[in-house]
């Protein structure tokens, strides 16, 4: 018997309530990005060796065989015309981020991901791989043993996989070979870009920096930018000025927002969310479909063939009726949760309720559905 049950309570759901205190402050470095102080993405194409028979199949991944042949020929081994099909090598894409102010000789972390039909990179070693920037120049070279977080086990008729064994990392696995030219000492004005643009937050950043230097050195230009005049700070260098302000504590302003993830049933409700007076009732249906196919065979020694006769039972049931709950005007976060819980509904049903309240114009917050 095959049974399918569709009900609003299929998945376990969660509600996250964001209720920061009024004086919750964060460091300036956690609110803004300093113009010009950023990393650069690097990418390379390499080969992983030393796998335990979990590498690429050469028939399905001919590029792996070509790369292996090129590497061996550069090492003085002539394999032209040879038929070799090793299962302990895999072609991979190597990615990394070159941090700001990285110097030649420094090391960065790299991520290694299989691009062929390799089943696992566990126990593999990445062969020397150049990492290129967007301009095509080589900025780092990666090599080392791979740490893969997944695991796989298989037999003749089944295979079980936990995590992603075809992707791993090499901590400090790339050595910086070229520096990104950036003269930080010649900067006279630097922009502070807010990660979450907001006029009130930008104004608070301006006021806090000016109060630190006791003069007007910062100016808000828009909701996402504050310009700092480094000459007016009277600091020895731009680095000294940024080091002085990056740990200043500022209270950011957050918009009232409700975030809904329909796939996982997660609801995030901000502290400043308010709703107008509204009454809410919630109900649902349960659809039950049962398949009990019947096999019909012909009589012994009779002509005919065996057939499968489908038998289906479908049933729709009304969910138990729920009471009508009233949410008063100006309802706060705790009142919303208490009102919805009074209906006895699950978080996934609250998603539909919040959508309906928003459609009625009673939800005074930004509703983001993902």
Report on the structure:
The chain is of the alpha+beta class. It folds into 3 domains: 2-18 and 257-369, no CATH class; 27-36 and 183-250, Alpha-Beta Plaits (2-Layer Sandwich), CATH 3.30.70; 40-176, no CATH class. Helix content is 16%, strand content 37%. The chain is built from 5 helices and 28 strands. It has helices at residues 62-74, 199-213, 238-245, 333-342, 347-359; strands at 2-6, 14-17, 26-27, 32-34, 40-49, 90-98, 107-114, 125-132, 138-145, 147-148, 151-154, 159-162, 167-176, 189-194, 218-222, 225-229, 249-250, 257-261, 266-269, 274-275, 278-280, 285-291, 294-296, 307-309, 312-318, 325-327, 363-364, 366-369. Strands 5-6-7-13-9-8 form a 6-stranded antiparallel β-barrel. Strands 2-19-18-28 form a 4-stranded mixed β-sheet, covered by helices on one side. Strands 4-14-16-15 form a 4-stranded antiparallel β-sheet, covered by helices on one side. Residues 1-22 have low confidence and may be disordered. GO terms for molecular function: structural molecule activity. One of its GO terms (biological process) is bacterial-type flagellum-dependent cell motility. Residues 1-24 form the signal peptide. Belongs to the FlgI family. It comes from Roseinatronobacter bogoriensis subsp. barguzinensis.
